[in-house]
Inverse folding.
């Protein structure tokens, strides 16, 4: 099988089920941003020396492929029955992970700037991509039906990624970077 198909040379791509849409369609933007998030997590994972956090990343990455397939398959598609959908069990899993990651952390006393150790900075980047994906998915949901658990899943995932940034700094012995607002602004 060749890597190139030439099927997208006209600016369209195929969804699961065969429907062709423009590559700038809201649905394509949503699952494309999930793909970008998955790549950012791979980048974070490559800098991760802590099994606790590596294990979470390796748990999340396949779910992001599932989420991408979910978003790439309209609910009305004949192919919809052939894919797994993100469900309540998935965001409940994220809530358990958030609780586990937060348990050893000190309570937050201020807003935190992205940064700290390299792993935390990479996870902050993934978190911001996750938030952008969430915005894209919310936009998609205004125009087309999506699974009811998709938005809660992505919302919880950004929370988990934030918790992981703090845990990465803690494990590396690096303080979170506090935000000190400029007076009078």
């Amino acid at each position: 099988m060749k890597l190139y198909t030439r099927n997208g040379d006209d600016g369209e791509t195929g969804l699961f089920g065969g429907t062709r849409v423009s590559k700038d369609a809201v649905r394509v933007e949503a699952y494309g941003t999930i793909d970008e998030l998955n790549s950012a997590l791979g980048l974070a994972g490559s800098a991760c020396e802590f099994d606790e956090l590596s294990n979470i990343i390796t748990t999340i990455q396949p779910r992001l492929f599932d989420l991408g397939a979910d978003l790439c398959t309209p609910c009305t598609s004949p192919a919809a029955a052939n894919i797994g959908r993100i469900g309540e069990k998935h965001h409940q899993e994220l809530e358990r992970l958030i609780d586990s990651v937060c348990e050893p952390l000190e309570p937050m006393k201020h807003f935190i700037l992205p940064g700290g150790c390299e792993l935390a900075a990479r996870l902050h980047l993934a978190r911001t991509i996750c938030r952008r994906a969430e915005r894209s998915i919310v936009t998609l949901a205004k125009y087309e039906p999506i699974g009811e658990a998709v938005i809660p899943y992505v919302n919880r995932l950004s929370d988990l990624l934030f918790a992981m940034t703090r845990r990465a700094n803690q494990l590396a012995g690096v303080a979170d970077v506090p935000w000190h607002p400029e007076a009078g602004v």
